[in-house]
UniProtKB/TrEMBL annotation:
Originating organism: Methylomonas koyamae
Chain ranges of the DUF2281 domain: 42-71
Organism lineage: Bacteria, Pseudomonadati, Pseudomonadota, Gammaproteobacteria, Methylococcales
Protein name: DUF2281 domain-containing protein
Amino acid sequence: MLTAIKGYYDHGRIVLQEEAPVQSKADVIITFLTESPVDETRPAQRIPGGLKGQVTIPDDFNAPLDDLHDYM
């Protein structure tokens, strides 16, 4: 049986916020949910127009594809 129980870690002790649903010895897996550090190399906000001049769209973008001619 897999069961998740919320709790917290405090000075070397794990404190569960509810009673465990087992009455005997059982294996457990502990996952620590900590905030990941902010990546300082990445801008915090999107910059409108940041890719201006770096992206191009061909003039025939909406033209039918020749590869699909057999299916029409």
